[in-house]
Design goal:
The chain is α+β, with helices and mostly antiparallel strands. The protein contains three helices and twelve strands, in the order αββββββααββββββ. The chain has helices spanning 3-35, 99-105, 110-113, and strands at 41-49, 53-62, 65-69, 73-77, 82-86, 91-95, 118-125, 128-135, 144-150, 156-163, 166-176, 196-199.
Length: 201
């Protein structure tokens, strides 16, 4: 095989990889538009990991804000400050979470980060787009994410995140594109008069 043929093959492979990357970006762009809609959305979820076990709950999202409820805790995030209410301890921890900490609490955070710091790979599986995001920086807390996206609605149905050697799997159901009030994303002390508030900022 001469050098010209090798060069043409390499160019073709490069073009195919570029098309795949662009297609993955386009799918994620559409998903970001659905999930990150300015008026908000909500869904039910089940999260499981070998480290934390399994829990189910609900999550509401509005831009970068989110509000999550599980039997163990309630979390509010207004885009800057996070309040985490631990039911067992009657305790509210107030913090300014890093991006990695936001990702642990809100699996939909991927809609804000997929364009920076992650390579993309996509295939199609039984009515879903399957996208793998791999961190370029080996020091990032979340090294890899696997996302299953409905090919018709562009709603994510399952998300897996790898931190170190540990995987967390989140299944999403009952997605609703319904408006969410801004008050939902801030902790109101009047609703929890017996809770001890601990400021960790």
């Amino acid at each position: 095989m001469n050098i010209r043929k090798i060069f043409l093959i390499l160019m073709l492979c490069s073009a195919i990889l570029t098309i795949k990357a662009q297609t993955a970006t386009q799918v994620l762009d559409k998903t970001a538009a659905v999930v990150g809609r300015s008026s908000g959305c909500s869904a039910a979820f089940t999260a499981s990991s070998s480290k934390y076990g399994t829990t189910s709950g609900t999550i509401a999202i509005k831009g970068r804000k989110f509000h999550a409820r599980t039997p163990q805790a309630i979390v509010w995030f207004d885009g800057k400050t996070q309040w985490s209410y631990l039911k067992q301890n009657e305790e509210v921890n107030v913090s300014t979470p890093t991006q990695a900490q936001q990702m642990r609490m809100n699996p939909m955070t991927f809609i804000h980060i997929y364009k920076t710091g992650y390579t993309q790979r996509m295939t199609k599986q039984k009515g879903s787009y399957f996208i793998t995001l791999t961190a370029k920086n080996k020091k990032r807390t979340v090294q890899q994410m696997q996302i299953w996206i409905n090919s018709r609605s562009y709603v994510p149905t399952k998300i897996r995140m790898r931190q170190g050697n540990s995987w967390t799997t989140i299944t999403v159901r009952n997605f609703s594109a319904a408006a969410q009030p801004n008050s939902l994303f801030r902790f109101n002390a009047k609703d929890f008069p017996n809770a001890e508030v601990i400021d960790l900022r």
